[in-house]
Amino acid sequence: MSALSVRQVRRRYLTLYGLRWLPTGLMIPVMILLMQERGLSLPQIGLVSTAQGLLVLALELPTGGLADALGRRPVLLAAGALNLISLSLFAVADSFLLFFLVWALQGIYRALDSGPLESWYVDATLAADPKAEYERGLGYAGTVVGAAIGAGALLSGGLVLLGPIGPVSALTVPVLVAILAQAAALVALLALLVEEGPATGAAGLRASVVQAPRMIGEAFGLLRRSRVLLALVAVELFWGFGMVTFESLLPVRLAEVVGDPERAAALLGPANSAAWLASAAGAALTPLLLRWPGAAPGAALLRILQGVTVVGMGLFAGPVGVLVAYLACYTVHGASNPLHSGLLHRQVDGPYRTSVLSLNSMMAQPAGALGGVALTALAAVTSVGTAMVVGAVVLAVAAPLYLPAWRAGRQRAADPAAVAEPAEPQAAGR
């Protein structure tokens, strides 16, 4: 049994999860506009973002296997330290090469950060009570992340409205606050995340590095044998490509509609805050969606609805219409993520949990890099609205990939013995 109760595990997870996303909330309203302020064009911004996607592609699985073998705590600490370095560099970067380095560091950070905290929560919860329903905690996490990013975005917009502070431009001030928030998140991680796992130290590290490739191979083996898991992971290809519309193109679209980048940044602060609060509200619907229409049908329907909202962002005239569609997009976003994560966790056992989550994330990040290049280039030669509509279509066409999970769920409900639990993965190369 775990030394922590289910409630204690959930409380610590939600606290750390909120602190992890607060710096992101501070950065979202200003990141793209700050790079434009410092001389980068939209195609250049798309290119520098590929550094993140390429490094995630290269490192996602090794870092996931390392987290399963070495332990989630040391990997998360390394990730937080790298994010602190990348944010510090972002505060002073003023060239294509420096921003490329920032995004490269972000790629390493994302690869290390992808999955360990969520895996720790699920495994620690099951250790405390093997019958606990961790999906509800994942839904609460969606609510917390929405509130954290919303608060960060609101603070970011307020800081921009205050104007420059001495030689620091208005768009740079939120970056400095994000650095402080990331430092606080590292301290909290040290204090709150306790783990009974693999040995640490030099010997433990060497053993974990040797063991990581086997963990990766076993995760791939599980993916090969589970058509349901394969389809769920494939969803991330479409989501990663399409998310560029509401993460990167929306600030440009709003600046286009408003006619002033700084005014757009000021609007994006409260807009992002409201959007992530809407995301939190969407995540709070998880228990209802699990009852009706069910996890897999609900996730499929929400992918289609998200595509519709992105079309609205791209086609509505005026800032009010764009922002209303933006809020609707994030409501759907918050509701869909816990459903997808819950479906994914049900297909994997604990020892390989982070590796499989890394496989899932690995699909999203490079697809996002491809979307960043393709959609920003399309926006440059046509219009931002056209690029957003294309991204919306890509988001929506992922919906049928939830059909295998839906069919498996119906078969299990009709005859629990008809659909066996996922088999233990075999060793790599077998």
Written description of the protein model:
- It is a single chain.
- With 430 residues, this protein is mainly α.
- It has one domain: MFS general substrate transporter like domains (Growth Hormone, Chain: A).
- α7 runs antiparallel to α15 and α12 packs parallel to α15.
- The longest helix is centred in the first third of the chain and has 29 residues.
- The chain is globular.
- It starts with 5 loop residues before the first helix and ends in a 16-residue tail after the last helix.
- The C terminus is likely disordered.
How much helicity do the residues have?
over 70%
Q: Give Rg in angstroms.
A: 21 Å
Listing every helix as H and every strand as E from the N terminus to the C terminus, the arrangement reads: HHHHHHHHHHHHHHHHHH
Strand fraction equals under 5%
Form type: globular
What is the averaged pLDDT score?
A: 83
Could you say which structural class the secondary elements and strand pairing correspond to?
mainly alpha
Number of helices: 18
Superfamily at the CATH H level?
Answer: MFS general substrate transporter like domains
Kindly report how far apart the N and C termini lie.
33 Å
| Total DSSP E strands | 0
Q: What is the CATH first-level class name?
A: Mainly Alpha
| Low-confidence residue ranges | 418-430
CATH topology: Growth Hormone, Chain: A
What is the CATH architecture term? Up-down Bundle
Count of discrete domains: 1
Please give the largest β-sheet.
none
